[in-house]
Description:
Largest sheet: 7 strands, mixed
CATH class of the largest domain: Alpha Beta
Number of helices: 14
CATH architecture of the largest domain: 3-Layer(aba) Sandwich
Strand content: 5-15%
Order of helices and strands: HHEEEHHHEHEHEHEHEEEHHEEHEEEHH
Distance between the termini: 31 Å
Strand order of the largest sheet: 4-10-9-8-7-5-6
Helix content: 25-40%
Amino acid sequence: xxxxxxxxxxxxxxxxxxxxxxxxxxxxxxxxxxxxxxxxxxxxxxxxxxxxxxxxxxxxxxxxxxxxxxxxxxxxxxxxxxxxxxxxxxxxxxxxxxxxxxxxxxxxxxxxxxxxxxxxxxxxxxxxxxxxxxxxxxxxxxxxxxxxxxxxxxxxxxxxxxxxxxxxxxxxxxxxxxxxxxxxxxxxxxxxxxxxxxxxxxxxxxxxxxxxxxxxxxxxxxxxxxxxxxxxxxxxxxxxxxxxxxxxxxxxxxxxxxxxxxxxxxxxxxxxxxxxxxxxxxxxxxxxxxxxxxxxxxxxxxxxxxxxxxxxxxxxxxxxxxxxxxxxxxxxxxxxxxxxxxxxxxxxxxxxxxxxxxxxxxxxxxxxxxxxxxxxxxxxxxxxxxxxxxxxxxxxxxxxxxxxxxxxxxxxxxxxxxxxxxxxxxxxxxxxxxxxxxxxxxxxxxxxxxxxxxxxxxxxxxxxxxxxxxxxxxxxxxxxxxxxxxxxxxxxxxxxxxxxx
Length: 501
C-alpha cells in the first residue's frame, strides 16, 4: 500500500461528479471548436477540459478526476508535474530561457547525462544533435545517414509512425497522414513489420522471413530497389498497434545492416526512457543502433528531442547541417537532465518490468472471459490489448476498441487506441503510478468490458487466450477501497452480476 507521503497523484481518483463532458468542460470544448482548427483530434476522443494534473491523474473543470493511462502519448513517463522536474524548471527559469546553441552549464550537464545513459557502444562514443520534436529527430537522423553514406534510400516498415510534418511524413506508413501533406520526396522502401499475431513474412516463427525478404531487396539486382543507406525501425511498433516483434528481430536486423554496410536507425521516441522496463527498448535484445532518435519523455512535456549517433560516422558535418531556433531550449534541457537522473537512480526500471509483467497477466486473465480480445502483448508499461470480431479470423474490431475508450472515460480512466484500424487499446501509464490506481483502473477496464457485451449469454471462447500462469507466478496487485464514480447507465451486465453468475 502506498504511504500517504509517497503519493504523487490525487488519491481519490477516479472521481466522476458530472458525466463527461460536464457543463464547464462542454462550454470550453464549444469555444475551442469555434476558434481552433477542425484538424484538432484529441477533444473528440477525450471530451474534457483539464484544470490541473498531478502524478498519474487529471482533474477537469467540472471536478472529475481521471486516472491517466495515456501520459500525453508516453511523454509523461514520470507523471504530471513531478516535483523534481518542477524544481529543475523553476531553477532554470531564474537564469536563462533561450540561448541558441551557446554552451550553458545546463546544456553541458544534459549532454553529459545523456551520453552516460546511451545504449551499448554509443555510450561514451556518440555525438548529439539537439532537435525539437520526434519527427524532427527522425528526419534529421535519416538525412545524417544519407550524408554519411553518400547515397539516399531508407528501408522503413509497415505500421511505422515517425512523424507527420515536412519530409518525415514519407517515412510514416499510414496513408491518411501522407494524404494531407504537400511534401513529397525521399527514397523509402516499405517492408512488413514482423507481427507475430498478424504474420506476413512468417513472423510467427521468428524474424527469418523478414530478413530473407530484406536480403532479396538489397541483393537481387532485379528487386527494383536502388542503393539503400539505412534501415529505420521502432523496437516495438507504437502507433501501428503496440506490436512486439520476435526476440531475434533486432539482433538479426543489426547483422543484416552490418553485412551490407547499412546504418541502423532506432526510433525510440515512444519506447525510450524506461517505457519498456529498460532505459531503451533496444537493450532488451542487446542491440546497439548506429543512430538513436529520442523525444517525448526527455523533455517531460517541454519540446525537446535528440539524435545521438556514432562519433565515427562522419568525419565532419557542415556547419548548419540542421537548423532550428528552438533547438536545445534551456528549460527543456534542465528538465531533461533531471529526468535522466531520476531514471538512472533507484529501482524504477526494475519495478516497471515487474509490474508490467503482472499487468499483462491481469489483462490476459480478463481476456480469457471476453472473446472480443484477440491478443495481449507488450513489455513494461507499453501494453497493447487488441480487439477482434473473432479469434479464429482475427478480423480487427476498431469500433469495439473505441467503444471501450468511451466506456473507460465514463468510469474515470483515460486510455487511447492505436493500430491500423484503431483496434488496439494501449496501456501507457506513467511509470510512477501508484499500485492502488493500477488496481482501480483494472477494475474499471473489467467493468467496461462487461458493459459492452451484447447480452449476458454472449458466447465465451472455448479455451483461454493464453495458458494460465503457474501457481504463485501471478501476483495480484493489492486490493484497496475504490471510490465509486457516478457513471451514466450502460447496457449489459455489471461486474457484480457477472461474478454472481
